[in-house]
Amino acid sequence: MSWRIDPYSDARLPALAVWWNEAFRGMRNYWPVGPEALRTRIIERRTAVESFDPSGLLLAVDGDRVVGAIHAGIQPESVSRALDPAWEGGTRGWVALLCVLPGWRRRGVGGALWDRARACLAGCREVFVDGQGLGPYYGNSDGPATPFFGTPEGLSLPAEDGVTRAFLERRGHRPQALGRTYEKLLCVGPSEAARARESTPLPAAAPTGDTDAGSGMSPNATLGKGAEPGAVPRVSANATVGKGAEPGAVPRVSANATVGKGAEPGAVPGSARPNAAGGAEFALVTGFLPELGRPIAEGGIFRPAHPFVAAIAVGDGVTVGLAAAYEMTELGRGHWGVYQLVVEEAWQGQGLGRMLLARALAEATARGGRSCEALTLPERSPGAARLYEAAGFAAVAEWAVY
Ligand SMILES: CC(C)(COP(=O)(O)OP(=O)(O)OC[C@H]1O[C@@H](n2cnc3c(N)ncnc32)[C@H](O)[C@@H]1OP(=O)(O)O)[C@@H](O)C(=O)NCCC(=O)NCCS
User: Are residues 208 and 354 in the same domain?
Assistant: First the structure.
C-alpha cells in the first residue's frame, strides 16, 4: 500500500487542485479550478455560523499526489433547526466531495476515506451525504453562484454512477430523490427578447436593469428584520412552497448570508400594476433575493455577491412568487441557471410561475444569455417539471440527490 490518508494542510493545496481537475473534468458544468478558487471557496470560507476545519478535509495521498478526498463537517444546530423545525437537537454531520481517482479505485482508498470521515463525525445524531449543497462549500448555499460542478443548485452524483451509489448504499445512504436538469437555448434575437419582456406585466416604473438604478432606494437603506449578517437563518422560500412551482424543493439555508454593499430592502417600485394573475404585481430585483411569504419592504437575507436577477410577484406587499436566474460565469459561455422558481401555495394555479419564469428568461436573454438550465425534483414537484417542459426546456441530465 503506497497511499495514506492525511488531513488537509496548505502545502497540499496545489496537489488538491490537480486532483480536483482530474477527478471532476468529465462532470456536467465542470470548470477548471485553481488553488485560489479552492482557497476562496473552501479553505478561507467563513459564514456567520460555520468555518472551515482542516481536520475534516481528508486527502488520500500517494507520494506528492492527492489521489482521493472526502470532506466531513458538522452542521451547527441552529442550521439544522432552521432546515427542519422538528429537529430534536444534537449535531448533524455531513459528508461531501468523496472521490477517488480511477487508477486508485478498488484498493480500499474510498472505504478508508469514508471510515476516517465518519470518525470525525462520531457523536453526531445523524449523518447525511451532502449532495444538495446544504453545507457552505460546494453548492450555492448563500445565493446564486456557479457551483463547482454539477447542477445550478449544487454538486450531486450523476444518476448513472451505479458504482458510487452502491458504495454509499452499503454504508447506509440512499438518494433522497431523483434530480433532473432541464436546459433551454435562449437563442432569440433582440426584438424577440424585447417582446418576451413585454409579454409579462411590468410595473410602470420598474427598472429593467439593476434595481439600484431605478428603484430610488438608497443603497445604504437600513435592512429589515432578518437581514442582519449574523442572523440565524430562517428556512426560506421552500418551506412554504407547494406543488408545481419550485425547481428543486431543496431547502437552502441562508446561514451564510453576507449583507453586501448596495443591498436595498425595498427594490419594488410602488407603482407596480396589478394584473390578471390574481392581482399580483411584478418587478425585477437584483440587489437582494427576496424571501417568499415576507414583506418585500424587509428585503431579503441573501445578498449574493454574484449578479443575478429575480422576477418577483408581490401580493399585498408580500413576495408571493419568485424566479431567480444567474449567469454561471465561471463556465464562460453565456450559460444561465434558474436558482429558484417558487410560488406561494395560495397563489398557485394562476399562471404566476409561468409568467415569472418567462420574465426571468427574458431578462437573462437581454443580458446576453444563450442557454439556461434548471434543476427539478420531478417526483416531488411534477408541476415544476411540466412547467419547464411547457416553457421549452428539455431534460439533459439526471442526478441521485442525497
Ligand atoms: C465511490 C468511490 C469513492 C469508491 O472508491 P474506491 O477507492 O474504489 O473504494 P474502495 O476500494 O474502498 O471500495 C470499493 C469496493 O472495492 C472493493 N475493494 C476494496 N478494496 C479492494 C481490494 N483491495 N481489492 C479488490 N477490491 C477491493 C470492495 O468491493 C469495495 O466495496 P465495499 O468496501 O463497499 O464492500 C469511487 O468509485 C469514486 O470516486 N466514484 C466517483 C465519486 C464521484 O463522482 N464523486 C463526485 C460527487 S461527490
Answer: yes
In this predicted model, which residue has the larger pLDDT, 340 or 252?
340
Both 137 and 196 in one domain: the answer is no
Number of domains into which the chain is organized = 2
Ligand 1 contacts CB of residue 158 (under 6 A): no
Q: Using CA atoms, how far apart are residues 310 and 312, in angstroms rounded to an integer?
A: 6
Q: Which atom, in ligand 1's list, is nearest to the CA of 99?
A: 39
Given 163, 198, 232, which residue is the final one in a domain?
232
Position with higher pLDDT, 224 vs 165? 165
Please tell me the predicted confidence (pLDDT) of residue 48: 86
- Residue 168 alpha carbon to ligand 1 centre in Å: 9
Between residues 191 and 272, the one the model is more confident about: 191
The answer to whether residues 169 and 191 belong to one domain is no
Q: Whose CA is nearest to atom 4 of ligand 1?
A: 110
The reply to whether 246 falls in a domain is no
- Max Cα distance, the chain (Å): 70
Q: What element of type H or E holds 127? A: strand 126-129
Q: Note the pTM of the prediction, 2 decimals.
A: 0.79
pLDDT at 270: 32
CB atoms inside a 10 Å sphere around CB 46:
11
SS (H, E, C) 355-375: HHHHHHHHHHHHCCCCEEEEE
Cβ–ligand 1 contact at 168 (below 6 Å): no
pLDDT tens for 133-192 read 888 899 887 778 889 999 998 889 999 999 999 999 999 999 999 999 999 999 765 555
* For the chain, percent of residues with pLDDT exceeding 70: 77
Contact between 329 and 301 under an 8 Å Cβ cutoff? The reply is no
Helix/strand/coil for 97: strand
**Which residue reads 433575493 in cell numbers?**
289
Residue 145 inside a domain? The answer is yes
Together in a domain, 23 and 164: yes
Residue 283, pLDDT above cutoff 60: yes
**Within a domain: residue 192?**
yes
- CB of 224 closer than 8 Å to CB of 299: yes
